[in-house]
From TrEMBL:
Residues annotated as transmembrane: 151-170
Name the UniProt record assigns to this protein: CARDB domain-containing protein
Family annotation (InterPro entries): Ig-like_fold
Residues spanning the signal sequence: 1-22
Keyword Membrane in annotation: yes
UniProt organism field: Sulfuriferula plumbiphila
Keywords, ordered alphabetically: Membrane, Signal, Transmembrane, Transmembrane helix
Length: 172
């Protein structure tokens, strides 16, 4: 009986959350910038555009929106610390009237290779519901860390420099 009551309670919470979600007064869209590289590599920048709109009948006050990034590689699923990725900080909108919207661009510098999912979240200061945009997935290619333009002068120059110094010391 206890299990059945727990199941009904859980079902009620889930159904209640579903209807609160459907009646959410704020809609968030998320779109990758068309200028983003087709095959982004480590070190590249991506930009995402979001529009946050009050679709309700009441003003929304104290709306905070932020970007979140999750690595979704099998076995490496984890949230990403955006401080390293030079991501945009959260934005605050003191008031958003019914029907009013605002746009935010979210730049991200790609630090690590892998598969990622980005989402924009928002919360109203007085509400108890977290709102989120649809996900945007992307893949970051590994960037070679050894470039011949940087390593070749050192690889060839150091032996020549040592030989020249040794020859100069022998002549003295």
């Amino acid at each position: 009986m206890k299990r059945m009551m727990s199941l009904f309670a859980l079902l009620g919470v889930l159904l209640g959350a579903g209807s609160a979600w459907a009646d959410a007064p704020v809609q968030i869209t998320l779109v990758p910038d068309p200028q983003n590289p087709a095959q982004p590599k480590m070190g590249d920048w991506l930009k995402f555009h979001s529009v946050i709109k009050n679709t309700g009948r009441q003003p929304v006050s104290g709306l905070v929106a932020w970007i979140s990034l999750v690595q979704v590689d099998p076995g490496k699923e984890q949230p990403v610390d955006l401080e390293d990725w030079s991501a945009h900080k959260a934005v605050l909108r003191p008031s958003l009237a019914p029907g009013q919207s605002f746009s935010v661009d979210w730049p991200i510098r790609l630090i690590q290779a892998g598969n990622y999912r980005v989402v924009i979240s928002a919360a109203e200061r007085t509400a108890s519901t977290l709102l989120a945009s649809p996900f945007a997935d992307f893949h970051v290619e590994r960037k070679p860390t050894i470039e011949s333009g940087r390593i070749l002068p050192v690889a060839l120059g150091m032996p020549l420099l040592i030989a020249a110094f040794a020859g100069w010391r022998l002549r003295r």
